Amino acid sequence: MVMTVGTFEAKTRLSELLDRVESGDIVAITRRGVEIARLVPADRRCDPGEVVETFEKIRRDVLGEAPVELAEVASWRLEGQR
After folding, report:
1. Which SS3 state, helix, strand or coil, does residue 35 take?
2. Where are the domains of the chain?
3. Interval 12-39 mean pLDDT
4. Which end of the chain is more exposed for a tag (fewer CB within 10 A), N or C?
5. Which CATH class is domain 1-43?
6. H/E element holding 31?
7. Are 25 and 1 in contact (CB under 8 A)?
8. Nearby residues of 26 by Cβ (< 8 Å), 6 or more positions away
């Protein structure tokens, strides 16, 4: 389950939110209604589609650029390992 909270609420309820994440929930943190971060369980693995979706959202909302391809994300990952 994804729970959404604002930054102020996240700061004041951090311990409770971490308990929820530990039990498997995901907490999306927003600033002025825009998601800026997620708290996820440490052992949670992202599927490639979710990674691409996140990059597309960043490009669209922040950079105003075209959608990203999975191959491009893979190349960024490899580039970061060099």
Report:
1. strand
2. 1-43, 45-82
3. 92
4. C
5. alpha beta
6. strand 26-31
7. yes
8. 1, 2, 3, 38, 39, 40, 41, 44
